[in-house]
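To whoever is covering the structure queue this week,

Two jobs came back overnight. Logging them here so there's a record in the thread.

Job A:
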Amino acid sequence: MKIGIYPGSFDPVTKGHLDIISRAEKLFDKLIVAVMVNPDKQSTFSASERVEMLRRATSSLPNVEIDSFDGLLAEYAKIYHATAIVKGLRALSDFEYEFQMALTNRKLNADLETIFLSTNAENMFLSSSMVKQVARFGGDISPFVPSCIAKDIQQRLLQEREAKRESNQ
């Protein structure tokens, strides 16, 4: 069985992420979408919230499994017998960092390949950070995120902004 892993923070998942997931899942018998838990990074949504959003957004893709992890990706791949890591690239600047990570993962797990998928042109500008900024100011995020989770993201970020505003008064 060919198993691939698509890791990321997915804070929140965007249509760009879904594009990579839907294309990558065709390459493997099973694609594990792994929500990374990075203690050095302040996430807007908890790991369990991000997992749940991804499950809802990928429910129509039967060979996609959603999980979360904290630790070394190369070790995680060994545990699940994955043969490849999938990384989405928006721009050349993404490649430099991702290439460095691919070489590191290969050093830690010699059986692990990294596959780079370039994003569709319509998603090149799209990032979770941009989605959060638009949502916090009440903008329409429906063109950027899966419709099944758009309202949840919008509500959460507007509430967060309101709470911050109240604490500053």
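Job B:
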Amino acid sequence: MLNNADLYGKETQATDGTKFRANNSRKNNHNPTTLKTKIANINKQITEHLNAIEKNDKEENKTKEDTKLPNPQECQELLQKLKNKKVDLEKLLEKAEKEGEVSTVDPDARLMHSGGDARPLDVCYNTITTVDAKHKLIVDFEVTNQANDSGHLQTMSNKTREVLGVEGFTHLADKGFYDGEDIVACEQMGVLCLIAKPKAGGSKKSEEFSFERFVYDKLLDCYVCPCEQKLQFKRVNKYSGGPHRVYENYVVCRACLKRGECTKSSYRRVYRPLYQDALDVVDVRTREGRVLYRKRSWIVEHPFGTVKSVWGFKAFLCRGLVKVTGETVLAFLAYNFRRVFNIFGADRAGLAALFGL
């Protein structure tokens, strides 16, 4: 309907993720560390109750005034409860060691940095949304229990192309979507990406030896450090962000007088993603298009601000990924309807024509 009414601009899209609290409290979310601690505490309590039962058995002439020793029957009942609880926790531990964490009320929810409301960590879902720039109408979304946004840019680009019926568009996203393989896939399908580049990490001790000061020589396939020494390509390693080419020069670094300012280890390594050539093109485009890129937050945060802050929809009532996705459909459908009413305003005839009335 929005496509037929030409309410989507179809040229510029902005994508971002936001956290909605799940119907599962933090106390009902467990990881292997917390479960092992709870099991250790239960083992301690079981030992204490067994000692109490043994002590009662030895006290044959216990007087009525002696209230320090617990009742044997009560000890047996508490002991059985603790054993049952231990069995349940051990089952949860086995599952948590396979999956990383377990939520007992909503099994699909995960612990994430939710942000805002003074709640740094909560059990949530991550809702990744693509919004069209023309009228800030939602194009599509995906609810996931993955805490970060990495790896979802291509998915949202494909969804947007299908909904809008276009081959390519300009896609704005923040540094959370800066994934080389994902960006290259989008570029190859005709989607022009503008994405902020994350700051390089590493063990540098001074700004003089930050990663940005190491210049890549494409012809020689090496990095030239601030001391004008060459770091040669050695191997390809796989990291969380994908495969990287590793550059180093142990002999030169060992003899360098400024090694202590450059790195904490015995020599400096520089990592270059396999997709860095394509990322360089995106980085240049993002810098040159910074005026457009600044509009990213104005576009994509509009639905989040309306739904979460104005309407107060910050937590799911349903449980499970399928059901919370359905709940999100209703909320975002309501948002798009509300936006349409605001767009047409007093133009009742145009609004009626849109709905075929």
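Note for Job B: Residues 72-99 form the longest helix (28 residues).

Please reply-all if you pick these up so we don't duplicate work.
Q.
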